[in-house]
Design a protein that fits this description.
The protein is of the alpha/beta class and 466 residues long. It has two domains: 159 residues, Beta Barrel (Lyase, Ornithine Decarboxylase, Chain A, domain 1), CATH 2.40.37; 253 residues, Alanine racemase (TIM Barrel, Alpha-Beta Barrel), CATH 3.20.20. It is 25% helix and 23% strand. The protein contains twelve helices and 23 strands. The strands form four sheets. Strands 6, 7, 8, 9, 10, 13, 14, 15 and 16 form a nine-stranded parallel sheet that branches. Strands 5, 17, 18, 19, 20, 21, 22 and 23 form an eight-stranded mixed sheet that branches. Helix 8 packs across helix 9. The chain starts with a strand and ends with a helix. The chain binds pyridoxal-5'-phosphate. Pyridoxal-5'-phosphate (PLP) binds next to helix 10.
Length: 466
C-alpha cells in the first residue's frame, strides 16, 4: 500500500501577496495535465492506494464500503476532520468556532467539540442538533439574519456563548427574550448574555476575487460605512441583561485571496477600538482546492495573515481574534461515492455518465457552477483520458455533478465513481428532490467504518404524511 503524496500546487509566496493561487474554478483545469490521475491533495489525509490500485481511506477499502453500504454514500476521513480542527485551534486559539452549516450531524458536532472548537450554529435546528450531540450551551455561537423570538428565547434561556446581533428588529426580539429569562438562584438576576454585533464592512469576497463597496448591499448585519453599526453598539449597550463583547463580520465563502481578509480587518479594527470591544471575529470563508490545478492557503497561513493584519492595524494584543471556518475544516475530508448506471457516448458531442445521485446530494454545481473532479476508487492513481460529463438521475437537464470530468478509459456501468472534496455543503444542503432518499454518512478511521447518519428509507419520506 502506498500513501499518496499530498503536496498540491504551492501557494508559497502568493498567499501574502494576495495573488490568486489559481484561476477561476470553472476554468482552471490545465489542459496538459487534464488526463492526469486525481491529485492527492484533493483526497482525504489518510488516503492511500493498495497494491491492486484501489483507494483506501482510514484503512478502509472504498469500493468495498460502497458495496456494503450502498450508494450514494458520503465518506469522511475522521483523522482529517480532527487534524483540521486541531489546526484551527492551534492557529486561532480556543475561541475559534466550527461553521457547522458546512456539515452538521451529532458525530461531527462531538468531534469538533472534542478537538476544542466552539460551534457556530445558524438556526434553532442546528442549535438543537449541537445540544443533542452533548455540546454545552456555553460552546455555541448563535448566528442568523432573522432569528425568531423562539430561537432567541432558547439561546438566552440556555445562556449560549455568544448571540450575534444582526438587526434592530432582532434586537427588539432579544429584549423580549432576555426579559423572559428566569431569575438566577435566590432571585438574583441571570448572568448577562454575551453578544457580538454583526458588521457589514463593505468587503465582499467569493472564490478568488474580492471587491470593496462603498455601500454595503447585504441582508446581513449593520453597515459600517453608514454609521448603522456604531448606532447598533449604542442600542445594544442600552439593553439590560445584554453585554456586547465584540464585533463580527463574514465577507464571503471559498475565498483564496487572503488580502480580502486584510482589507476586512483594516476596516473593522478602528470600529473595535472606537468602542473598546474585546473580541473580533472575522467569520469563515477560507477556500479549498476542488480541482487538480488548484491550491488554497492553509488554516495556519490564513491565521498568520489575519494576526499580522490585526497587529499592523493597531489592534491591542489583548483583543481576542477569532474565526469560524466551515468548509476548510470538512470539505477535503469527505468524498461522495456513486454507482455508474448509464454511459452514453454522443459522437462529436460528449459522453454522459449517469450516477445514482445528483443535485439532491450535491446542489453546488447547479447553484454556483462549482467545479469538481471525479475518479474511480478501484483505479485511484490511473490516468483519466476520457472526457465526460457526470450527471445525476433527477428529471432535470441541469442535474450535473461534474461538468468537465476526466475518467479512466475502461470506465464501465457498475463502477463506483467518487467525487472528492465533497465534505462541505453537500450533506448539509441535500434534499429529497424527486423523493430520493438522502444518502448515509460514514466516518472511516483505523481500518473501520461507522455509519453516523443512516440512509433514509421510504418510511422516512412518508412519516410526516397523513
Ligand atoms: C457567519 C458565517 N460564519 C461562518 C461561515 C462558514 O463559512 P465557510 O464554510 O466558507 O468557512 C458562514 C458561511 O456562510 C457564515 O455565514
Amino acid at each position: 500500500m502506498s500513501q499518496l503524496r499530498r503536496s498540491g500546487p504551492s501557494t508559497a509566496g502568493r498567499v501574502a501577496a494576495g495573488v490568486p493561487p489559481s484561476g477561476d474554478p470553472a476554468s482552471s483545469r490545465d489542459p496538459a495535465s487534464s488526463a492526469a490521475p486525481i491529485a492527492p491533495h484533493l483526497l482525504p489525509l489518510t488516503a492511500a492506494v493498495g497494491a491492486d490500485g484501489r483507494l483506501l481511506v482510514g484503512g478502509v477499502d472504498i469500493c468495498r464500503l460502497a458495496d456494503e453500504q450502498g450508494t450514494p454514500l458520503f465518506v469522511y476521513d475522521e483523522e482529517h476532520l480532527r487534524a483540521r480542527c486541531r489546526e484551527a485551534v492551534a492557529a486561532f486559539g480556543p475561541g475559534v468556532a466550527y461553521g457547522a452549516k458546512a456539515f452538521l450531524c451529532k458525530s461531527m458536532a462531538r468531534l469538533a467539540r472534542e478537538e476544542g472548537m466552539l460551534l457556530d450554529v445558524a438556526t434553532g435546528e442546528e442549535l438543537s442538533i449541537a445540544l443533542a450531540a452533548g455540546a454545552s450551551p456555553s460552546s455555541l455561537v448563535l448566528h442568523g439574519n432573522n432569528k425568531s423570538a423562539e430561537e432567541l428565547d432558547t439561546a438566552c434561556s440556555l445562556g449560549v456563548h455568544r448571540v450575534v446581533v444582526d438587526s434592530s428588529d432582532e434586537l427588539d426580539r432579544l429584549v423580549g427574550a432576555l426579559a423572559a429569562r428566569r431569575t438566577g438562584p435566590g432571585g438574583s438576576a441571570p448572568a448577562p448574555q454575551q453578544a457580538l454585533v454583526r458588521v457589514t464592512p463593505g468587503v465582499e469576497a467569493h472564490t478568488h476575487e474580492f471587491v470593496t463597496t462603498g455601500r454595503e448591499d447585504s441582508k446581513f448585519g449593520f453597515s459600517l460605512a453608514s454609521g448603522a453599526a456604531d448606532a447598533a453598539v449604542e442600542a445594544i449597550a442600552a439593553v439590560d441583561g445584554l453585554e456586547l463583547v465584540g464585533a463580527h463580520a463574514h465577507i464571503g465563502s471559498q475565498i483564496f485571496r487572503l488580502d480580502a481578509f486584510v482589507q476586512e480587518i483594516a476596516l473593522l479594527v478602528p470600529f473595535v477600538k472606537r468602542h473598546g470591544l474585546s473580541e473580533l471575529c472575522i467569520g469563515g470563508g477560507l477556500g479549498v482546492a476542488y480541482l487538480n490545478g488548484e491550491a488554497a492557503p492553509s488554516i495556519r497561513e490564513w491565521a498568520s495573515v489575519v494576526h499580522a493584519a490585526c497587529a499592523s492595524a493597531g489592534l491591542a494584543q489583548q483583543v481576542r481574534v477569532t474565526a469560524e471556518p466551515g468548509r476548510a475544516i470538512v470539505a477535503t475530508a469527505g468524498i461522495t461515492c456513486y454507482r455508474v448506471g448509464t454511459i452514453k457516448h454522443l459522437p462529436g458531442i460528449r459522453t454522459y455518465v449517469a450516477v445514482d445521485g445528483g443535485m439532491s446530494d450535491n446542489p453546488r454545481p447547479v447553484l454556483y457552477g462549482s467545479g469538481y473532479e471525479a475518479f474511480l476508487p478501484r483505479a485511484a492513481s490511473s490516468p483519466r483520458p476520457l472526457p465526460a460529463r457526470v450527471v445525476g438521475k433527477h428529471c432535470e437537464s441541469g442535474d450535473v455533478l461534474v461538468e468537465s470530468a476526466r475518467l479512466p478509459a475502461d470506465l464501465a456501468v457498475g463502477d463506483v465513481l467518487a467525487t472528492p472534496v465533497t465534505g462541505a455543503y453537500g450533506f448539509s444542503m441535500a434534499s429529497n428532490y424527486n423523493r430520493l432518499r438522502r444518502p448515509a454518512v460514514v466516518f472511516v478511521g483505523d481500518g473501520k467504518a461507522r455509519v453516523v447518519v443512516r440512509r433514509e428509507r421510504v418510511d422516512d419520506l412518508l412519516r410526516l404524511e397523513d
